[in-house]
Amino acid sequence: MKKPLMRGCLYPMLVVMIWSNFDTVRAQQKQKKEEDKSTVNLRLLPIGARRTAVFTKSKKAYKIRIDNPEGGSIEQIIPAGVPIEVKGKEHEYVPLGLFIKNRNRKTGEMLSRMSVGLNSLSPPCRISQRDTVVFYKRKLVSSVDGGAEFKLVPYAKSGLPPETDDVLVAIVKNVRSKEGWAKPMVRSINVEAEVFPAGACLFFNASPFSVDFAALGVSKMTIKPYQHVYIKGLKVDAYGATPYRAVMNMGQKKENLADGALRQNGTSRHYLVSFVDPRKGVVRRGDLVSISEKTPVQQEPVE
Fold this sequence. Notes:
The chain is mostly beta strands. The protein contains one helix and 20 strands. The strands form seven sheets. It has a four-stranded mixed sheet. β14 (210-215) and β15 form a beta hairpin.
């Protein structure tokens, strides 16, 4: 005959198990917090005007082959005189991808790849804490037997704000060169939720001209060339948005960049970045990029 279980004995064991599990969870949280302190959340923002497409006419007819989804292929003859885009030089285009040498606690050194898109934020990348970050790009070394061989070469570097967990690195095209992405200007900006909270706007003037900015709830201000400003205290109108206006001062000429509005929902924050188009013949030299995102949640410290 089996003896009945004694509840008086099981209760202390259950308490010990729960408390032990609680300590384990707290230890894991503390370890994760320590790991987060040793890493930085980094994003890229390449800023600049797009390259002007250049076309030439084909001098002779040529044949192309198109694969048929159902099998086989279709041949088509392109006659002479058809416009063909002339490919630009390497540094007329923003690099498609950049690499960072990272340190991993388990595997040692590793490479982190960052996707890059013109005038758009890259996905976040967690990198080890450091004073300076160096970005590398792939360079074609040789092509043997139809295969390409690449090596990593330094492209740009920037200092990081001290004791910062969330950083935006802006890579600005050099307006004084046709191949403006060869040696761009690089700026690091602290975008932690503590200094850049929900409802605020970060204005970065990535141009050699000053910009006058005004918005609902804040007085008119002048933002100097290559300066960034955190604009807080913005008010919302009846439509749930913050109207704003930005004007670029180009010597005696003033160019209206935008009469827009920032859509506010209580959790969003906004980036406004001004830049110039150095190409000859463009009607509007100044331009403005507007990006909105959900404000990251500030983590509470673990005791």
